[in-house]
Amino acid sequence: MTNYFDHTATSFIEQDVIDFLAKQLTENNYNPAARYTSGIKAAASIAKSTQTIASFLGAKSNEVIITSGATESINTALKGIVFAPNPKHKRILTSRGEHPATVETLKFIELRLDYTIDYCSLNNNGEVDLEELESLLRQNQYDLLTLIHVNNVLGSVNPIAQIVKMRNQYQPDLPIHLDAVQSLGKIPFNFETLGIELASFSLHKLGGPKGIGILLKNKATRLEPLIHGGGQQNNLRSGTENPALVATMAYVIERMQKNFGQNNLAVADLKLFLLAQLKQAKIKHQVISPEDAVPHIVSIAFPELRAETLLNVLAKEGMQVSIGSACSSKKSERNQVLQQLNLPQGLDQYILRISLDKSNSQTEICDLVRIIKTALDKYAV
Amino acid sequence: MKIDYQELILIRLGEIALKGLNRHKFETRLISNLRYRLRDLGKFKIYQEQSRVYIEKRPQDEFDFPTGQILKRIKDVFGYVSASPVRRFANDKDILFAQVETYVAELYADGAAHSFKFETRRIDKDFPLNSYQLNCDLGEKVLNAFPEQATVDVHNPDFLLQIEIRQEIYLYHEIQPAYSGLPVGISGTGMLLLSGGIDSPVAGFHMASRGLQLEAIYFHTFPYTGDQAKQKVIDLATRLSDFSGRLPLHIVDFTDIQLEINQKVPGEMLTVIMRRMMMRIADRLAEKNKINCLITGESLGQVASQTVDALRCTNSVVDRPVFRPLIGIDKNDTIKLAREIDTYETSILPYEDCCTIFVAKHPKINPNQLDCEQAEQDLDIELLVEQGLNKIETIVI
User: Fold this and answer.
1) Residues B198 and B104 placed together within one structural domain of the fold
2) Which of A327, A332, A350 to mutate to test the interface with B (most CBs of B within 10 A)?
3) Beta bridge partners of A118
4) pLDDT digits (tens, 9 = 90+) for A329-360
5) Confidence of residue A162 (pLDDT cuts 50, 70, 90)
């Protein structure tokens, strides 16, 4: 894939991963519950892969639940807490910076299960407002605190260490769930060190295939399963496990962690290069992502042309980017995260999200900037 | 006894049957439209007989007669009142009784209770039983066969079993109402201004139901509206073509004209001048394609450009009649019809909103001819119209 600046939406799969997966599907495709040798081998393979995954995430093997992706992980975590026989305050704390997988699940819980959901505001950097969070934790008793780790629109990183400290002070028994979909591979992640109880991941954001993800759950946290059936994965997620996909996940995560430092330095350089190019081309713009955001996600406003119009030109030229807010007159369809930033009226509709990866080249960035420049010159009204 | 019958579809003509000397022309067109609508389901024998049209399998063909699919397809054809799937068999009393037995057994196979009534038309007066006797005998037979399920209801039966005794006997009970109207093509062709919204496809539907074949023109303002918006219009035209037959869709690259208007026309007049320009281009294309009318989805007072004054301004730049079938129709009724004809879900896809960039916050609600001429004074109208006509991509659906 060339001219691809949407790695936040999905990453692409490199050839060695495809080869690995193909080999696994050929050789390691037995039902791990079967009693014959190949089945027993499949079960052993899953155990080994899970061990690898756990160790890279700073977790224990028995804390790993394999799911179909982050949306399922998040649903399992949120609904699982609500349905489990835990002490019930019928209240969940979250932020206004969450992904729809969280937002919509919480709406369901609010409407159908009569919960109160408190939404903590974001500061101008797109991070959770710690003062407000503290005050909410002081005022109310919650069943769960769920937050995004790295914001998928802005790249802002929530200060989880501080938040965990705050939780320990006010409500030590309150479990924290982290939507870590965008953090893995971009910032260091260690389940144990972070001191959280639940975390969700998706493999297709990391260079693996779609259809597989992880929910980490520490031993003390009780969850009611979302999917019932054959009792696989300690009865927490029924359904025949896929040894080939789990092995591929271990392979991808291991590979990603090994190249972690090198990749992130390369992406940071690309971001600087992009911003320098925009400046050099004298393109009127405003970087919306905060300075300390992960360099992989750069939201930029081009106030002379609506993002949707710009996107149409870029798409025609083969450039693959995405936009912050879809152009819509209805406020409800606007991006809720961008609404939190105190931006000038309507500016959210002028924001392009450029998400980078080490596979992007400087030449691609030059082309992108050139096309943006041409589009602005021709179509800005 | 072997149960031998032929399945066919009976089509009842409405308005066409009242036409005088032209009647043949109307029937021929209807038959040709039915054939076109069924073209990919197979080749059928479609013919006219005694104020009716029949669709049947050709004797030499081996394919199954897909009755359900045929009925679904021909629902979109204008020019008849209703259709029924019919069984036809030899004119013989014993055969009739045997056929009714099989037919009714299928109807009662669900095990539930249903009321019924027989209605017989005996055109062949040589048939040994008269209509009344036949209804009674057959009714008795059904009651005896299904004593737990069958009851007679002469006012509002679940199954109104109809028998027609002609040279052969016809048996049926289902009647699928149609949209009536006139066969498409009988009234010529109209140029529909298709926008991608809810109204224009419905306007096209209305005029097609009066026998107009359609060509459609869409003004694309890329990149302000994306290619998804264009695809949406293609999808709408494709659905419309189910009703109107072959449909050429002309996509005008309108961006440069729009930018020129935006630059040279005062904000409050933008929309009305843009619409005047679209009407001119549509009119000129109609002229070129020998089309004598334009069709729009305008509805009085719906938006600022659809007031009486604004309509007069847009109307005054064309000399063909402009048909606006929705002009006095309530929006809710238009939406209802759009849902029924399956264009609504496509129309409300959100890609269209973005051209709001060229809409003034407070457009002039009562513009007059002089306002328009003043607003257009810096535009080279003829050049822009030519420019539009030269940048047309036509897709034939």
Assistant:
1) no
2) A327
3) A93
4) 444 467 888 888 888 888 888 999 999 999 99
5) very high
Within 8 A of A311 by CB-CB distance, chain B residues are: 226
Residues B22 and B146 in one domain: yes
Structure tokens at A265: 């330095």
Task: Say yes or no: A102 and A140 in one domain.
Answer: yes
Distance of CA A192 to CAs A178, A181, A277, B82, Å? 13, 17, 41, 72
* Span A226-259, pLDDT tens digits: 999 999 998 999 999 999 999 999 999 999 988 9
> Does pLDDT of A118 surpass 50?
yes
For the stretch B213-256, pLDDT in tens is: 999 999 999 998 888 888 999 999 999 999 999 999 999 999 99
- Cβ contact (<8 Å) for A328 and B353? yes
Q: Using an 8 Å Cβ cutoff, are B80 and B16 in contact?
A: yes
Please give, one letter per residue, the 3-state secondary structure of B252-308.
EECHHHHHHHHHHCCHHHHHHHHHHHHHHHHHHHHHHCCCCCEECCCCCCCCHHHCH
Number of CB pairs, chain A paired with chain B, less than 8 A apart: 39
A328 neighbourhood in chain B, CB within 8 Å: 350, 353
Chain A's closest residue to B229, CA to CA, is A312
User: Are B168 and B194 part of one and the same domain?
Assistant: no
A327 touches chain B (CB under 8 A): yes
Nearest to A187 by CA among A161, A213, A216, A225: A161
Count other Cβ atoms within 10 Å, centred on residue A344: 10
The model's pLDDT over A66-96, given as tens digits with 9 standing for 90+, comes to 999 999 999 999 999 999 986 689 999 999 9
Tell me how many degrees the CA angle A369-A373-A374 measures, rounded to the nearest 5: 120
Both B158 and B246 in a single domain? no
CATH number at residue B141: 3.30.2130.30
Q: How far apart are CA B347 and CA A165, in angstroms?
A: 52
Nearest CA in chain A to B262: A381
B354, closest residue in chain A (CA to CA): A327
* Structure confidence at residue B357 (pLDDT): 66
Please check whether residue A273 is in contact with residue A358, taking contact to mean a CB–CB distance below 8 angstroms: no
Residue with tokens 């756990």: A54
pLDDT for the residue numbered A328: 45
CB contact under 8 A, A313 and B357: no
Min Cα separation B317/chain A (Å)? 27
Determine the pLDDT at residue A1. Answer: 65
The whole domain housing B165 covers 6-177
* Interchain pair A313, B223: CB under 8 A: yes
Measured distance CA(A171)–CA(A111) in Å, rounded:
25
Asked if residue B137 and residue B43 are part of one domain, the reply reads: yes
What's the pLDDT score for residue A326? 55
**B352 or B390, which is more confident:** B390
Q: CB count, 10 Å around CB of A252? A: 26
Residues of chain B that touch chain A, judged by Cβ-Cβ distance less than 8 Å: 222-227, 259, 262, 350, 353-354, 356-358
**Confidence (pLDDT) at A331:** 47
Q: Which of B177, B202, B226 is the last residue of a domain?
A: B177
Same domain for B226 and B261, yes or no, is yes
Residue B135 lies in a domain: yes
Q: Residue A194 in contact with residue A63, Cβ under 8 Å?
A: no
Give me the pLDDT at residue B253, please.
95
CB atoms within 10 A of CB A165: 12
Contact A217, A223 (CB under 8 A): yes
Q: What CA–CA distance (Å, rounded) separates A158 from A351?
A: 21
Please count the structural domains in chain B.
2
Could you tell me the residue range of the domain that residue A254 belongs to?
Answer: 15-258
Task: For residue B225, list chain A residues with Cβ-Cβ distance below 8 A.
Answer: 312
Chain-wide mean pLDDT for chain B?
Answer: 89
Q: Is residue B184 situated within a structural domain?
A: no
Same domain, B209 and B172: no
| Choice between A315 and A332, residue whose per-residue pLDDT is larger | A315
Q: Do A328 and B350 lie within an 8 Å CB cutoff?
A: yes
